[in-house]
Specification:
With 71 residues, the chain is mainly alpha-helical. Helices cover 56% and strands 0% of the residues. It is built from 3 helices and no strands. The longest helix is centred in the middle third of the chain and has 21 residues. The chain starts with 5 loop residues before the first helix and ends in a 13-residue tail after the last helix.
Amino acid sequence: MFGLGMQEILVIAFIILLLFGGKKIPEMMQGLGRGVKSFKDGMNGNGNLTPDPSPEERGDKNGNDNGNDVK
């Protein structure tokens, strides 16, 4: 693994623990996981980045869809 042995990995982990503290690391990893998931969804086209506008946003005050949807 990149030429790193177990001792080097433990030293790096210990330094990260000292720098950020035990409570901050899980929050950082959770944010990193969400970012990776969002990136993967975006690459696969699974994420809908722009939601469909509501009837009010389209200008329809009665909530009707004006027959624009395909059935």
